[in-house]
From TrEMBL:
Signal sequence, renumbered to the chain: none
Species, as recorded: Heterodera trifolii
Domain of life, per lineage: Eukaryota
InterPro entries, per the entry: 7TM_GPCR_serpentine_rcpt_Sre, Costars_dom, Costars_sf, Serpentine_rcpt_epsilon
Name by which UniProt lists this protein: Costars domain-containing protein
Keywords noted in UniProt: Membrane, Transmembrane, Transmembrane helix
Membrane-spanning ranges: 38-57, 63-87, 124-146, 158-181
PANTHER family per UniProt: SERPENTINE RECEPTOR CLASS EPSILON-13-RELATED (PTHR47518), SERPENTINE RECEPTOR, CLASS T (PTHR47518:SF9)
Domain Costars: 320-341
Family under the similarity heading: Belongs to the nematode receptor-like protein sre family.
Pfam family, one: Sre
Coiled-coil ranges (or none): none
Gene3D superfamilies found in the cross-reference section: Costar domain
Length: 357
């Protein structure tokens, strides 16, 4: 029964060594990492665990086991402070190098070092508590300061539940302090809760006896509410012509104020779709409705038909670019803040079509 305890105690130190290597070799750690590290340290930890098991009997703990627990406890205390230093160092490296590094692999490793060190600080603290419990019990079992045999039997029964709770908290905190794992755990719990509610409602509906078929059918009706991406109820009433043109006017006035510079706020309440050569603009509101109207006057009040079509094409290109960025941001491929500025030649073609050849 002591083998898992010994193995976990030694394995935590291997994780600290691995994080230290990742911090020192952040630039090319992804290429350096291979299976040799895992194979060597797994064999080493297994050998130490076997050595402790062979020198431990069910009645007493010998000097080697007691000395091993004391050494591992002191080492864990040092490693806890070392890991706190690594966390601070990784944050500084991330803030100092992020804007200068063009290598995606190194960028990923810098962010992963910050996440992993933050994730493992609390588990290492619980691991230290776990070692304190084990060291106290092995010290008492080795020196035997009490004459009452019941105390030793009680300690033998107490240590295993205490270590089990500590080990469970280690696993739980490793999940809770990692953003990706915590998000997956939340989604899994939500799925279980929804499945439980579903089966409860199905069982309740099957066990209910109605007086008539009409009464049972009316009681089992479910209301379907359509919502948008923000969880708000969609508006189903028809839109008026005045509201339609007011939305378009505000949208294009905001565009003209910034001379073609778009921000993320422009796409919070509407999305305009412009097609080359189209006579109308389709605008999708936040509540899910789609309205249409004429293009902005700044594009269509020119007499040069060729420049007019080219201006519309560039407007369509602008919206397509922002759409791709929004989709990439949704799937976690890019992360950006602030304004999205389009090239000056795009705005100049639209604002001054007569100056173009």
């Amino acid at each position: 029964m002591m083998a898992p305890i010994y193995f976990r105690n030694y394995l935590a130190h291997v994780l600290v060594i691995e994080r230290l290597m990742a911090t020192l070799w952040a630039k090319n750690y992804e290429t350096r990492r291979n299976w040799h590290f895992s194979a060597i340290w797994f064999s080493f930890v297994t050998g130490l665990t076997t050595l402790n098991i062979l020198h431990t009997t069910s009645q007493q703990t010998d000097f080697l086991t007691w000395l091993t627990f004391g050494f591992v406890l002191a080492l864990a205390l040092i490693e806890l402070f070392l890991f706190a230093f690594l966390w601070k160092l990784n944050i500084q490296n991330y803030q100092r190098k992020w804007s200068k590094i063009q290598n995606l692999s190194e960028r990923y490793q810098l962010s992963e070092n910050v996440r992993t060190t933050k994730q493992m600080l609390v588990p290492l603290l619980l691991h230290l508590i776990n070692l304190c419990l084990g060291s106290a019990v092995t010290t008492i079992a080795f020196y035997r300061p009490f004459a009452n045999k019941f105390l030793y039997d009680f300690l033998g029964q107490f240590i295993f539940p205490a270590v089990s709770v500590s080990n469970f908290l280690i696993e739980l905190t490793m999940i809770l302090f990692h953003p990706f794992l915590r998000r997956r755990l939340g989604k899994t719990i939500e799925k279980v809760r929804n499945a439980h509610k579903h089966w409860r409602s199905v069982g309740h509906a099957n066990n209910r006896i109605g007086t008539t078929t009409e009464e049972r059918d009316s009681g089992e009706q479910q209301m379907v509410i359509l919502v948008n991406l923000h969880g708000e109820k969609l508006r189903t009433e028809p839109i008026s012509q005045t509201e339609h043109f007011e939305v378009l006017r505000k949208a294009w006035e905001e565009m003209d104020k910034r001379s073609g510079i778009l921000t993320m706020d422009d796409f919070a309440n509407y999305r305009a779709i412009v097609r080359p050569g189209a006579d109308v603009i389709y605008t999708q509101l936040e509540d899910g409705r789609t309205i249409c109207g004429p293009p902005p006057p700044s594009v269509w009040e020119d007499d040069n038909g060729q420049a007019r079509q080219r201006g519309v094409h560039h407007i369509d290109h602008q919206f397509n670019v922002v759409g791709m960025l929004l989709r990439a941001r949704k799937h976690g491929m890019v992360d950006f803040e602030g304004e999205i500025t389009f090239p000056a030649e795009v705005r100049s073609e639209t604002d001054h079509p007569a100056d173009q050849p």
